[in-house]
Design goal:
Blueprint: E1 6-10, H1 15-27, E2 31-38, H2 45-54, E3 59-64, H3 66-79, H4 96-109, E4 114-116, H5 125-136, E5 141-143, H6 145-148, H7 154-163, E6 179-182, E7 187-190, E8 220-227, E9 230-234, E10 237-238, H8 241-254, E11 259-265, E12 271-277, H9 279-295, H10 298-317, H11 323-332, E13 341-348, E14 351-358, H12 366-369, H13 379-391
Parallel strand pairs: 1-2, 1-4, 2-3, 4-5
Antiparallel strand pairs: 6-7, 7-12, 8-9, 8-13, 9-10, 11-12, 13-14
Helix pairs in contact: 3-8, 4-5, 8-9, 10-11
Length: about 400
């Protein structure tokens, strides 16, 4: 059959996207371009290339986006202290916009008529990918196999893989694997017994954090330097954004920091349970709030706290490129030039604690806050301040 046009597939080299690749070939008269964005996930380039070639793919693109991912996507989100439903650091959510953007750019480069992804029909990722597609390439067709094909279960997919000679990975217990997504910022795990929110996750599930009970008995101290709102150094050494996060992931992970077990409300209207590991990100948000506590005024900090839930919700729902998210980012970054200095944090058996924070731009005043007297405020001023505040009780 003569191939008519091209389809750019977001390809991981794993089971699902390999099945999708084969399915696209069977159902569309088109050449499939396999695109892999390296954003710090566990990646085996040789395996990806070999798997794609076995399925007849001639054009395979693997692109290193780690630094772009951390600098332009993760760090802005850290500046906003984004936590979805108060706990989730949005590790999967923040990765999709970048992949979608690059997919469309590649589709335009090769004059592809369509793009495709491996997100399931019950998940949020289908929304995140496709909002990015429509934003950057509204005229390019979107193919969502999970909403099109007739497979109705995981068993159907595995049988299809066996029929077409697609290798099926196993987990540590010899069964088909959990659904896992990982990047430089986090690892998420879903499915199998995790679908029962009352079941404790098995320890072998965790990939980048040790069990806090088995973490070192000696605390680890880390010093994080900030400039213009972003982390620039770790333990007095400067690193690129991706390298800094990579090293902090290792230090925090060894101390059992960054585990989250969450039943979340998906954008499409169902609940799901996920296990998230975000060791470095957990430390960065904690440290960022600490440096802001001595460099930003109360109105600025409280304004950020008020918009954070909406900001996080927009990212979770896939609206990274929306005008509303960009507008909130401007509020978040309004005084980021003041956020500069160093924070020292103690990591110990899954916990975080502040050891110290300092900044040349600190607005903290020991004289004002000291209990040892001082003449900063007159007694009359404080009395009037309270009386004026009391008037608001009746409004």
């Amino acid at each position: 059959m003569k191939k008519e046009g091209k389809i750019v597939l977001a390809y991981s080299g794993g089971l699902d996207t390999s099945i999708i690749l084969k399915w696209l070939q069977e159902n569309y008269s088109a050449e499939v371009v396999a695109y892999t964005a390296d954003i710090g996930q566990k990646i085996n380039k040789k395996k990806i290339i070999n798997n794609a070639k076995k399925l007849g793919v001639k054009r395979i693109i693997i692109e290193n986006l780690k630094n772009t991912f951390v600098k332009d996507y993760v760090f802005p989100m850290i500046r906003g202290h984004a936590l979805y439903e108060g706990i989730y650091l949005l590790g999967t959510s923040i990765a999709r916009p970048l992949i979608a953007k690059r997919q469309i750019e590649i589709a335009k480069k090769f004059k592809a008529f369509a793009v495709s992804h491996g997100a399931t029909d019950k998940g949020n990722d289908q929304v995140r990918f496709e909002l990015g597609y429509y934003y950057f390439g509204p005229k390019i067709k979107v193919i969502a196999p999970w909403r099109e094909w007739k497979f109705s279960s995981r068993t159907d997919l595995i049988n299809y893989a066996k029929k077409n000679g697609i290798s099926i990975p196993k987990d540590k217990k010899g069964a088909p694997p959990f659904s896992v997504d990982d990047n430089l910022f986090h690892t998420s795990t879903e499915g199998k017994m995790l679908e029962d929110p009352n079941k404790n996750p098995p320890e072998y599930l965790f990939q980048r954090t040790v069990n806090p009970e088995k973490a070192p008995t000696k605390p680890t101290l880390v010093k994080i330097g900030f400039k213009n709102g972003d982390p620039v150094s770790l333990n007095k050494k400067q690193y690129s954004p991706s390298k800094l996060l990579e090293k902090l992931n290792s230090l925090a992970g060894k101390n059992g920091v960054g585990r989250v077990d969450l039943v979340e409300n998906r954008f499409i209207g169902i609940k799901s349970r996920g296990i998230y590991e975000t060791p470095g990100g957990t430390v960065l948000i904690f440290a960022h709030r600490a440096i802001e506590s001595i460099t930003l005024d109360n109105k600025t900090m409280h304004a950020k706290d008020k918009i954070m839930p909406r900001y996080a919700e927009l990212i979770y729902n896939g609206f990274w490129f929306s005008k509303e998210r960009l507008s909130l980012q401007k509020i978040i970054d309004q005084k980021k030039a003041r956020v500069e200095g160093e924070v020292t944090i103690k990591l110990y058996k899954g916990s975080l604690s502040i050891v110290g924070r300092k900044s040349k731009k600190s607005i903290y005043s020991k004289e004002k806050s000291s209990f040892e007297g001082g003449k900063i405020f007159s007694k009359k001023y404080i009395e009037n301040f309270i009386k004026n505040a009391a008037k608001k009780l009746k409004k």
